[in-house]
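Hi support team,

I submitted a single chain yesterday and got back a structure, but I'm not sure I'm reading the token output correctly. Could someone confirm the output below corresponds to the sequence I sent? I've pasted both exactly as they appear in my results page.

Thanks,
R.
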Amino acid sequence: MPRPEKDLIVIPSRETILHRLELTGAPCSLEKLARALEVHAREEIFILRKRLRAMVRDGQLVETRDHRYGIARAMEILAGRVIGHPDGFAFVRPDDGTPDIYLAPRDARSVLHGDRLLVRIAGHDERDRPFGAVVEVLERANREVVGRYLRDGPVGYISPDNRHLNQDILVPAGQELGATHGQIVIAAIDQQPDRHHQPIGHVTEVLGEHMAPGMEIDIAIRSHQLPVLWPEGLERELKRVPAKIRKTDLEGREDLRELPFVTIDGVDARDYDDAIYCRKTRTGFVLYVAIADVAHYVRPGTLLDAAARERGTSVYFPARVIPMLPEALSNGICSLNPDVERLAMVCELRYDEAGQRQKVRFCNAVIRSRARLIYEEVAEWLDKPESAWPADAPQRQVTTAYALYQLLRAQREARGALDIDTIEPRFIFNDARKIARIEARQRNDAHRLIEEFMIAANVAAAEHLVRHRRPAMFRVHAQPEAEKADALRQFLGSVGLGLGGGLKPVAKDFARVLVAAKARPDRNLIETVVLRSLKLAVYSPENVGHFGLGLESYAHFTSPIRRYPDLLIHRALKQQLLRQPPPADDLVVLGEHCSMTERRADDATRDAVAWLKCEYMLDKVGETFAGIISAVTSFGLFVQLEESFVEGLIHVTGLPDDYYHFDPVGHCMTGRRSHREYRLGQRLQVTVARVNLDERKIDFALAASPPAGKRRR
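Hi R., thanks for writing in. Yes, this is the structure output for that exact sequence:
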């Protein structure tokens, strides 16, 4: 291969290498492949070898025992990540999105959850599902684990807290760091598992007793590897962050300090990303959405930016937060606290009298919030007319904002955005940091007002960047898969409803189902099944729209204190305003990373909440509660208690005397002889049978009275 310049080394791309191997039709040695690619010089061959090894590492190629390189897929070998199962087997999720591959326990024992490997498809089962064998481990995902240190006679071992890690870690004598039986510890893995040996490790830290207050959060942080330590040297950067705005910060900014912005948040909020101001005009409304100007303080290439990027998002546990930014920013100079000057990026939206958006403008500004309001008090103001309040009172502009919200809400419904009011649990702790009770956190119109204004600003930001052809990080929500839509259509048919749209239903078709369900007693059942038919929203530079909101373009702009994608949108807007070229960030990789950190945060908080709920139920074994069937599976019924939102399982073997048929489409379990039916959304009386804190499991039994289930005629 000729060189275009004397000293420039050009090595064939991965695509070229794969194409050459395809033409050859068999694995090739380095020497043979180099000749075929016309790579001759020693330094070129050296770099080619490095590229081939990188392709092996990434699962594109396989290096045989006689050091030949072959295409992994052609050798029926796939690269993927392990998903461990508590029962000892595992699945491999291929990188290319093909169906998961089953690993039997004898194969799964050589890997741990999260490991990346090459797997050969060995065959298919009676349902045409692939099963495989491990070829090679490419990457080990677990360097340390958190779990309980246990002793069985002279043998010490750690039972991992993560149920996907389905092997105990052996701890040799003298390597337990003084841990005693039952304590929660962190252990480093010294020897990874293989087909003949369990993993071996040593204790690096003793976290404390199993039931210590706050232990559930410590475990979740370690199990999901949440970053909690700030990088060395960050303190020096933080010393350069001012405690208040300087004169130099105001250069090139619009002065909006005279506008009476207000923040509306929850009673326990500590950082304030957003503030609003709304007023009437002769032709309609003008809405200002001011968002904390985090990008002014968090600059690319700094330790602060690297730390924020690594975290990706703030993580909100009950009574504790792992922030994306240090408190000096999140609760200090970046937080739109009342009665202090703050830098903001402001989205100005002008609407006509019908609520149709007429104009959008973004600017760098300085503001001063007038008041910090909470949702509950604002909700009480909304039924009163503007004339009930003094002209300069925050209540007056809130009622003006409510009038605009009602117009935007009508547009939301018209375009078919999905709207499901979920009820979230709120934990009330006692002085010993144990749960005293669990309350419902209900959304009201004040929540909906702020949500609608934030959506409006997010849409404006996305459309602005699309209009100016700026690369951006979009929040995308793809259309449901055809199979999911078909299953939903079958279920809806069984309850007397239909899903329109034919082969490709749109958001409006799903929204019509939800509207039709509002007055029905099985509303929760229908909403749950609709939600489960949808895909997860993710971050991506490819703008495929947001299905759930019925929008062609959508981005997260309104929470840069707690979400890294929002910070990226702020930077893109600033660069557009200043006519600067876009950065060289790999937005595809960043999108995958931000989506991962979001899932990681959700999984960690879910684990901590599950622990707290189990702990709350420990002293309630034998008590009877009212519940609703929240899921129906082949192995039983999951039931959520109505008052505490705690979920537990009634195993299929615990159902009344009969053999039961599971209907996955109808989400129900039916007795073959008695025709007794248990359906998603059905109310039951259940008794707490047992609680397993280690496995985060609660078992229920049907209460003896009143009779459970209903007979189908």
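A quick pointer for reading it: The longest strand covers residues 341-352. Let us know if anything else looks off.

Best,
Support desk
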